[in-house]
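Worked Example 4.2. Consider the chain below.
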Amino acid sequence: MQFRQQALAKLQSPEELDLPVRFARPQGWLVLSVTVVVVAAASVWAVTGSVASTVGASAVLTHGEGSYLLQSPVAGQVTAVLAREGERLPANSPVLKVRTSEGDSVVRTVAAGRITALAATIGQIIQTGANVAAVEKVAHATDPLYATVYVPAENAASIPADADVDLTVSSVPTQTYGVLRGQVKAVDRSAQSAQQISAFLGDSQLGEQFTKKGRPVAVLVKLDTSRKTKSGYRWSSADGPPFALTSMTMASASIRLADQRPLDWLLP
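Applying the procedure from the previous section yields the following structure tokens:
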């Protein structure tokens, strides 16, 4: 209590009122100057700088027109399989022969393409509308591959035209050969159902897989070509993998979005 009274008395004493008051030490001015410089630099960066962002999604390598599921127009027993997996056929080519109650009938391709899967075997009983084959719409062996990326619908609007895309291909070791390069060619602005995806890819399982977290938007990516690589496409490594790529190969894509100013994050 005695010390408190002495301190109060000293504060009230007029003897030291004429002494100069020290507002800040030199070290304090230095800290203040550094703070002002940092704040100014951050403000300039927020207005003139840019930040790159990406969106990741599942993808599959396909040809541009996709595939279709060939369905049997009749019910009966399969007596002959007239096509082979991997075979390219013109439109209206025979694929299966089916014995019905009214005689033999032939199931034919709807459009030209390559048979990627046969779901019917000799002796099998099939119903009208049953999926009997998956046909990829490719007329020539030299037709280029594309990547179809299934992006969450909420991210589709932010994807710019010609955006750069990096593709990690499931069959290619990334640490050895890097990623596949491409650019966005088209963005389908309407979300797709599992049935639409299955019809385009010719695979019902992929339709279910790509819609587990909601209906996505399809983004078509044109792959960058290169004459220096075995695959014929450009990779982040110099040579890429020593083998050709095939359609219906799974991949994961990283799409670069439009650069944003940091200030845009703060403004409504």
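The radius of gyration is 33 Å. The first helix runs from residue 2 to 12. Compare this with Example 4.1 before moving on.
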